[in-house]
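Researcher: If only I could read backbone structure tokens as easily as an amino acid sequence. Walk me, if you will, through where the backbone shape changes along the chain. I have put the entry right below:
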Amino acid sequence: MVSAAFICALMTTSAQGASPAAEAEALIDKGNDLRRSRDDQGALPLFQRAYAVQPGPHTAVQLGLVEQALGLAKSPDERASSYLKPPLVPPARNVAGLPIAWAARAPYAVS
């Protein structure tokens, strides 16, 4: 079993100047090591920290998997589903800044 002090030390020590993505990946690697040794409870704070540092589909699924193993979530994709929705894309505009659909209906050519 991993002690609480060890987990706190892992959560507070990160490479100086490391990118959020690199820090999250390191936390996920440590969390996966703990899960392989059947310590889901010890892995949970590492995945929570990884998700706080770098929210995204990869960290969300990892956190969802450990939450599911601990009975805290119904499925790992509950958390990740928000990242799978298509992003909102603003309507296409021409160089004049007018919506293309509106410019096509204009009685004059916009160039």
